[in-house]
Amino acid sequence: MGFGNKRKRPGGDAKRSKKHTAPSKRQKTNVGKRVVGVDSLPWKTVDVPEMFDDAEGFYGLEEVQGVEVVRDGGTVKFVAAVPESPQESEEFEGFDDPPAESESQPEKHSPAEQGEASAPEEAADPEPKKLTKAERKAAKAQAKKSDDIKEQTTKDGKPAKAADAKPSEKKDTKATKPSPKDDPELETNVFTKVPGLADDDDDDDFDMSEWVPLNLSPEIMSCIARLKFSKPTPIQARAIPEAMSGHDVIGKAATGSGKTLAFGIPIVEKWLASASDKQEKRHPIALILSPTRELAHQITDHLKQLCSRLTNSPYICSVTGGLAVQKQQRQLEKADIVVGTPGRLWEVLSTSNALLEAFRGIGFLVVDEADRLLKDGHFKEAEEIMLALDRTAPGEEADEDEDDDDDGETPRHNRQTLVFSATFNKALQQKLAGKARYNLMGDAESLEYLLKKLNFREQRPKFIDTNPVSQMAENLKEGLIQCGDLEKDLYLYAVLLLQPTRRALVFTNSINTVRRLTSFLQTLNLPAFALHSDMEQKARLRSLERFKAGNPPPKGQQHATASSILVATDVAARGLDIPSIDLVIHYHVPRSADDYVHRSGRTARANNAGISILLCGPKEAVPTQRLISKVHATAAAAAAAASRSKLAASGVGVHTVDIDRRLVAHLRPRVSLAQKITETTIAKERGSKEDEWMRKAADELGVDYDEDELAQVGTWKGRGSGRKAREREAMAVSKGEVKQWRGQLKELLSKRVNTGVSEKYLVGVDVEALLNGARGEFLGQVEGLDI
Ligand SMILES: Nc1ncnc2c1ncn2[C@@H]1O[C@H](COP(=O)(O)OP(=O)(O)OP(=O)(O)O)[C@@H](O)[C@H]1O
């Protein structure tokens, strides 16, 4: 019996009470009943029945079992069937004050509640835990270093202070426990497990020696061994020790280079150190700000994976828009690590002084994708959060130096601030690196000024730049296809068809183009899914699920196509870590060099190879040229300076991909039909929506709706009139005609494309080889583009 998901209607409870009042026999005999507050009911996240289930009731929806709804005068009260225990065995004795939340809420770190794989302490296996070989090895490697750890000093000669005493000195290494199951909480389960995550036994002989210099606790070493990460990435190797020594850190590293764990590991280490000290309710230890919802969920998931073998693990939750607020409020009350988007976080935090007060005590404030988060539409809420964290609570004594915020003195708070991105504005980089005057009081528009708002604890945060020469991932190959402005659909289709990929990500600059291209590719029988900010959150998450679920094409398949394609706006450009994306296509040239870096960075992650292809029309030639020179300027200069270097030998930057033009021409009939079908379908949908809107408007105005008259009004000749005219034309196409086109397209798609040269059929083109310099037929030249 489940009822009362988060969409329960006010007033609907009394009616439901009839349906749900009778507890089962088993409940009557085995459970104690008590009155509890609605927020104290043991809500459980509704599981997703199937991946693509359309049913209501997941993504943030919750249900509760064994609850009676009883009317008490004018109020409705909830009698929860709570499991009987020595402390909780009292029979229901009538209405009383609701018991404290802790009595009826699942345990703070219970796996069922958190979706963590770790077991609650009371449910611990009575058998002593056996360590895997890797765990033993990790612990041994760490023990070898323990003397050094004890004597560890900071550069200043002071004793190391972050994670002040190592958890390893305080905790029993045998406490670590392998985690048996996946996270059942769908909202944080959007991203698949880290590939290569092995069963415990496979950890045997896993060499962790390269992690030893970081002086991590045996628990964390064991967690990392489980993830099969044999060595820290450069940003991890440099940022983790600084953060663990208590410093503020600004970290810059290429896309896909492991920045999440660079801040995640120090946070979990500190939590482990403090968790062993305290029994009472803890304050949250870290607040992590992310610019997009998907990234917030991904970070949450990544940190949960890291902690998945800890017996006692931090409660990690995400707080983002598009999902149930009440659930997030409840989660925030017991969270140790919170990952969220600024808008929703501020919405929830600003309504509760208690929450705000709790968050004032955080040990870490992390700003991921800082350059985006501190710009765009996010800054206002991010600033509110930062100000609120530093503000004295109402009724609290104001500190004497209250105006510290602005005078550059040490701020009152005691948190560390960790700021990460693959891209920072150049002038700021120079300042952070100490090459220019360092003054975080720059003009109000600049990132420099916004960083000032972060109120670093230290005058000079540690700036770590692991990719000063090239911002692009090392194994990324970049190509450019020059084509006519109206031929982009054709070349997009050609690349997707010719280049075998497991997952391809197509970026556009507009939501309308995402809609059109998704429909266009689907019409061509390609598995395309849309992602943009105008979609409902549930649909966004589902698109990502579907994108990830695509299967690789069968081996030896002649017409190799991408197994799944995501068509997205820049909402997918930052941070998303989806395994096996091997191709990124920029359908539109990105608006900025940084956008290009981040978009391209969705492939070639964690040392994997990947290809980024830019489709460039004549009108885009100039911005493209600028963009490329900006992205590759430093690398080109470095290559020129050391002309015998490998980099110079292989050439720097973007190469033109010369695809055989005749091959592409053979695809034209398919593309033309698919374009006609798509445009007609979209125009009809839009038309009927507009029609409906006009009807309603006319209704409200009390005037007659005259379709013909309104159609006349729409025949103006101004801006957008061409599109309107095309739309009208498309709307006039009969259903029969569309059906006929579909039939023709089906016929074409069922046949292999004969390239006209004797028996030669269209087969995959090795774009990678083309990028390496093997030349196909020249595709066409765009004036003025000389790359
Ligand atoms: N030490 C490591 N060894 C191997 N893989 C790692 C290591 N650390 C992290 N990874 C993996 O690398 C991938 C990229 O990590 P992450 O998402 O943190 O990158 P990022 O630097 O934040 O990228 P972006 O700039 O795009 O946000 C993830 O799949 C992660 O699991």
Automatic annotation (TrEMBL):
Its EC number is 3.6.4.13. Gene3D superfamilies: P-loop containing nucleotide triphosphate hydrolases (3.40.50.300). It is found in: Nucleus, Nucleolus. A motif (Q motif) lies at residues 209-237. It comes from the Eukaryota. Residues 16-28 have a biased composition (Basic residues). SMART domains: DEXDc (SM00487), HELICc (SM00490). Residues 240-442 form the Helicase ATP-binding domain. Residues 126-183 have a biased composition (Basic and acidic residues). InterPro entries: DEAD/DEAH_box_helicase_dom, Helicase_ATP-bd, Helicase_C-like, P-loop_NTPase, RNA-helicase_DEAD-box_CS, RNA_helicase_DEAD_Q_motif. Residues 491-648 form the Helicase C-terminal domain. Pfam families: DEAD (PF00270), Helicase_C (PF00271). CDD domains: DEADc_DDX24, SF2_C_DEAD. It catalyses: ATP + H2O = ADP + phosphate + H(+). Keywords: ATP-binding, Helicase, Hydrolase, Nucleotide-binding, RNA-binding, rRNA processing. RNA helicase. Belongs to the DEAD box helicase family. This is ATP-dependent RNA helicase. The lineage of its organism: Eukaryota, Fungi, Dikarya, Ascomycota, Pezizomycotina.
